[in-house]
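Something for you to look into today, if you have time. Just paste the record in under my message, thanks.
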Amino acid sequence: MEIDPSENDVEFTVAPYQFEPILVATDAESEDITTSEEESESDSAAGNEAHVRQVDQWCDCGHCEQMPTDLECRCCCSFNLCQYKMEQDNIKCITEHEGFQVNCLNRHVLELSFYEYLDNYGPIGDEEPGHE
């Protein structure tokens, strides 16, 4: 017996958060929430600055510069692929590698890579225009 799909068509739609309760806050509660959010943001920003390591604590190649956050404090020597490339060419820093110089410091290569990124992933932010 063959079933005709048009007879049993049922449309399913996803409605995220359809059954979630709506938060109704009083004025006093909303002020408390805003204040605690502001305090946590300022605490985390101050915490990031206070815990930033000095260059000599994380740089092994001797070419790194101080970065504003601890997350950005990474030396090329901490990446296995970079270490492999540096050992191949007997250099101390990936910035001395000829492949780095022609691919990462060439303005035209960077521009082309940026357009390829936009094609694959779209604009970086809502307020930023795409390729003009």
In short: Residues 27-50 form the longest helix (24 residues). The radius of gyration is 26 Å. Confidence is low (pLDDT under 50) at residues 42-48.
